[in-house]
Write a structure and sequence with these properties.
437 residues; alpha/beta; Rossmann fold; 3 domains; six-stranded parallel beta sheet; 18 helices; 46% helix; 17% strand; globular; binds nicotinamide-adenine-dinucleotide; binds L-histidinol; binds zinc ion; zinc; oxidoreductase; metal-binding; EC 1.1.1.23; NAD
Length: 437
């Protein structure tokens, strides 16, 4: 343990098992209790609907909610109450998020795989989508933009949003302004695993959704995982749980910048995890000093300190080794605070989103660079990507075969069908070939 509260690790001295332990997420050790509690919540909402939502909201959010739906008056109040500069910032961020996501949209395509055989891929918006915006430790209106804008670009017209109510029973007004900016008119005051259950199963007030999206704490993330595995449950976007950042810094990095980036993720929650990986011991010590200095005045220092207690500074022998550590960890966010960041980019194989160079703080991706901040955590970045317009669409393939096309490729189908012992398949082709012979 060092003065920064995290563990100092010399990577080179560890065997494979010790290395795996160092890269373990804090959320992984708590998951048995979280799982049991979430199972109870899901069963309760499935059985009792709104009555369960009311009881659970009182238990976990300490507020009684009569009507879960945000009414027109609350929306209007939010539009009137939120400062003009905040509204303008929402608009500015929204435009940039829209620009980036629009540019990445998949296009339908068609190709002739043989004369008379046309194959196509067409895109459709998912029917009803349920979005979750966290508001436990801090309401996150930026998350509403990150979910709502790609949903809108995908063409989703039936979009609902759930978010925890404040102690006064109201939804954060900035969050409502962000919802309005994305054309989301149906917002419900319910949070945690119970919100995911409501969107998955439906209740008297909240409609059942085809796919559930959004980040959240360990309860929200576990609820999404469980409902997505139930036969009648919705699809989900990804595991997007407690925030993480891994910074690879060389000796030329500015320790104040690195410390600020680490704290920006540590302040999210006690179960956030931040990792510094460097080949330079002096840089690590300078970052530790900067962390202590910056923590002294940070409003959420108690949360950040708790997160640092389960975080690590890892010293490697060479910068190239830092990329092995990062790829094994597969962080939600990866900052390359190194001298030639773009030259190192090809080494990155697993990360949700990458920030190149000293002037690309992770916080800029959280709000307004244009990329999406809903990203895979817990190592899921090894195989899962962050949110995009495609997350809100299904791709349907289409084929149209004319008689010439069937005579060109039908024989192949018949041989393969018979190789599989599926005679009816072969005959479905053969009967047509005979009819056109
Ligand atoms: N990976 C991503 O893309 C991403 C993006 C944004 C935020 N995040 C993460 O989302 C998380 C937001 O968490 P949060 O807690 O602030 O808000 P949240 O909205 O996810 O969770 C708050 C809800 O949790 C429920 N809850 C609280 N204690 C509980 C308990 N003991 N048992 C059952 N339910 C309980 C309550 O109902 C409450 O409404 C943070 O960890 C943040 O790092 C991740
Ligand atoms: N860093 C978070 C994702 O881990 C997203 C966020 C929203 N607001 C601030 N940060
Ligand atoms: Zn953040």
């Amino acid at each position: 343990m060092s003065g920064a509260g995290w563990q100092r690790i010399d990577w080179n001295t560890l065997d494979a098992r010790a290395r795996a332990d160092v890269l373990r997420r804090p959320a992984q050790s708590a998951c048995v209790e979280v799982h049991a509690s979430v199972e109870r919540i899901l069963a309760d909402v499935r059985a009792r609907g709104d009555a369960a939502l009311r009881a659970l909201t009182l238990q976990f959010d300490d507020v009684t909610i009569d009507d879960f739906a945000v009414g027109e008056a609350e929306f209007a109040r939010a539009m009137g109450d939120v400062d003009a500069d905040v509204q303008a910032a929402i608009d500015d961020a929204a435009r940039r998020i829209e620009t980036f996501h629009r540019a990445g949209m998949a296009a339908p395509y068609a190709v002739d795989t043989a004369p008379g055989v046309r194959c196509e891929r067409v895109l459709r918006p998912i029917g009803r989508v349920g979005l979750y915006a966290p508001a436990g430790s801090a309401p996150l209106p930026s998350t509403v933009l990150m979910l709502g804008i790609p949903a809108q670009l995908a063409g989703c017209t039936d979009t609902i949003l759930c978010t925890p109510p404040g102690k006064d029973g109201a939804v954060d007004p900035v969050l409502l302004v962000a919802a309005q900016r994305c054309g989301i008119a149906r917002v419900f005051k319910v949070g945690g695993a119970q919100a995911i259950a409501a969107m998955a199963f439906g209740t008297e007030s909240i409609p059942r959704c085809d796919k559930v999206f959004g980040p959240g704490n360990a309860y929200v993330t576990e609820a999404k995982r469980i409902v997505s595995m139930q036969g009648d449950g919705p699809a989900i976007d990804m595991p997007a749980g407690p925030s993480e950042v891994l910074v690879i810094a060389d000796g030329g990095a500015d320790p104040r910048f690195v410390a600020a980036d680490l704290l920006s993720q540590a302040e999210h929650g006690r179960d956030s995890q931040v990792l510094l990986v460097s080949d330079d011991g002096a840089l690590i010590e300078a970052v530790e000093a900067a962390l202590q200095a910056q923590l002294a005045t940070l409003p959420r220092r108690a949360i950040a300190r708790a997160a640092l207690a389960q975080s690590r500074a890892i010293q490697v022998q060479a910068l190239a080794d830092a990329f092995d550590v990062s790829n094994a960890y597969a962080p939600e966010h990866l900052i390359l605070a190194v001298r030639t960041p773009r030259a190192w980019l090809p080494r990155v194989r697993a990360a949700g989103s990458v920030f190149l160079g000293d002037f690309s703080p992770e916080a800029i991706g959280d709000y307004c660079s244009g990329t999406n901040h809903v990203l895979p955590t817990g190592g899921a970045a090894r195989a899962i990507s962050g949110l995009s317009v495609a997350s809100f669409q299904t791709a349907i393939t289409v084929q149209c075969v004319d008689p010439a096309g069937l005579s060109a490729i039908g024989g192949t189908a018949m041989i393969l069908a018979r190789a599989e012992g599926l005679e009816a398949h072969a005959r479905a082709v053969g009967v047509r070939l005979e009819a056109t012979a």
